[in-house]
TrEMBL record, chains A, B:
It comes from Actinorhabdospora filicis. SUPFAM superfamilies: NAD(P)-binding Rossmann-fold domains, Winged helix' DNA-binding domain. Homodimer. One of its GO terms (cellular component) is cytoplasm. Residues 225-264 are annotated as: Disordered. SMART domains: CoA_binding. This is Redox-sensing transcriptional repressor Rex. The keyword Transcription regulation applies. NAD(+) binds at G106, I107, G108, N109, L110, G111. It comes from the Bacteria. One of its GO terms (molecular function) is DNA-binding transcription factor activity. It is found in: Cytoplasm. InterPro entries: CoA-bd, NAD(P)-bd_dom_sf, Rex_actinobacterial-type, Rex_DNA-bd_C_dom, Tscrpt_rep_Rex, WH-like_DNA-bd_sf, WH_DNA-bd_sf.
DNA sequence: AGGCGCTTGTGAACGCGTGCACAAATCGGG
DNA sequence: CCCGATTTGTGCACGCGTTCACAAGCGCCT
């Protein structure tokens, strides 16, 4: 994400906790593998081939094997991967062994929804504090959690041991709030505000901008539309795209896709 | 996103609407440029250098120039880019000249928030229909919009001319709903459910998984933490990362970063 | 009119990520 | 004990994306 390229160039510290620097692309896929593994465990699978796991994660099998090998993973040739072991391995690498406390700043429309979202806790996170600047929201409790004033960030972040924060304020408030969070000791921010954040080195920022996602889709829509009018004879060949045949599992072998929805 | 690599390999159709196939990475950045341009226009700038615009978008200047050049853009050497012209260009390429109608399926915690989110309409989108399967929500209106039953998807998508849908259902419901949407003619889906969707060729799916974003941040937290304990002498050199110096703009030249928060 | 400074646009090198294809390894059966 | 079926782990090549550095172009000032 950030421009930080330099690594400590450490590989595997002698013994204790294996320390390794994975390619960013691999890191971004590990959570998806983890989710797929949970789904597989829930339907009773105890081992998986790379082919099956890749299908469940929506990813190329070779890519998955390379990812897991870089992780120093313990698969068994001729058999596959042990679901439980691999789950544990990835969880450890991602630092999910402890439930991480997360702060949420900006209890507006979106913040309210995230505060009540049940999908975080089974995946390693616990929303430990809510903050807003609006006096009108301060008394409110959401899911048994009190909405505090942003001026309490410094105290609460320390006492709750928070290192990750989600930012759902209006864009004009995002930078000052980010400064407060960093000052308090937060070193990772998930930014939902449509603006660029400036943070000191050592702090990671990931951005989620829903309008941007839609605009990217819009581009492809635009391209598809103009391609359709430009070459109208291509409306029949094979990719009609509108009213396709029964949307059956036309994707991959292995796991039946109706099963994969079985996760929380 | 999907595995669809083959392009129509079309470049610039003779006259009318310029047709060009941009690299995916460029497409993903164009919306960010657009947002930065809006912010610049709001503070009165009518021309921008690639350096300034890149800073406002949080991106490398050379990358920005290459992106815009691929777009066939009209900058002026020695001066920069005309803000209004460039805004219009990018908007056209992204297909944002018309306000696109978007469907939202799954009016739960998150869906409710998105339905009320004010940030879509100024960026080219209009939420035109809400759907849910839960009887309890059917009567409800959000922002003057009625929550309909999913069985009405087929009708409403056609009459409203919807081609993009956002999916905020629980994961087990995502695939069947996606099938219904595709069947109705939707060709782009923004999926918030933590599961893999199987769609026919010609349909684009983008996934937004908030827990995954947190898990990626968690990895970096884990790495930073172990690096700190492994080499405790590095706690002083320069990147203390906790309680850093006054979080001043320690990032880049060009635009003062205190200005960039001024966008809507 | 001419020169100078500034900024764009792009050619070229580099590095990362992806995908193929195969050797190595493991299990089960005969 | 050996053999074949199966699946992992990886060396290698290719392509995309990023970055640098510079030539080309534009405006302004003298």
């Amino acid at each position: 994400m950030s421009e930080d390229k330099r690594q400590t160039s450490r590989r595997k510290t002698s013994a204790g906790s294996a320390e390794l620097d994975l390619p960013e692309a691999t890191v971004a896929r590990l959570p998806e593998y983890l989710r797929a593994l949970h789904a597989l465990a829930e339907i009773g699978r105890d081992t998986v081939s790379s082919e099956d796991l890749a299908a469940a994660a929506g990813i190329n099998a070779a890519k998955l094997r390379k990812d897991l090998s870089q992780l120093g993973s313990y698969g068994t040739r001729g058999v596959g991967y042990d679901v439980e072991l691999l789950t544990s391995q990835i969880s450890t690498v991602l630092g999910l062994t402890e439930n991480r406390a997360v702060a949420l700043v900006g209890i507006g429309n979106l913040g309210h929804a995230l505060a009540g979202y049940a999908g975080f806790s089974p995946r390693g996170f616990r929303i430990a504090a809510l903050f807003d600047i609006d006096e009108g929201r301060l008394g409110e409790t959401i899911g048994g959690l009190l909405v505090r004033h942003v001026s309490e960030i410094a105290d609460v972040v320390v006492t709750e041991g928070i290192s990750i924060a989600m930012l759902t304020t209006p864009p004009h408030a995002a930078q000052p709030v980010a400064d407060m969070l960093v000052e308090a000791g937060v070193t990772s921010i998930l930014n939902f505000a449509p603006c660029v954040l400036s943070v000191p080195e050592g702090v990671d920022v990931r951005k989620v901008d829903l309008a941007i996602e839609l605009q990217i889709l819009s581009f492809h829509e635009h391209r598809k539309a103009t391609a359709r009018t430009a070459t109208p004879e291509s409306a029949s060949p094979k990719t009609a795209s509108v009213n396709p045949p029964p949307p059956s599992p036309a994707t991959a072998p292995g796991i039946a896709f109706s099963d994969q929805a079985e996760n929380a």
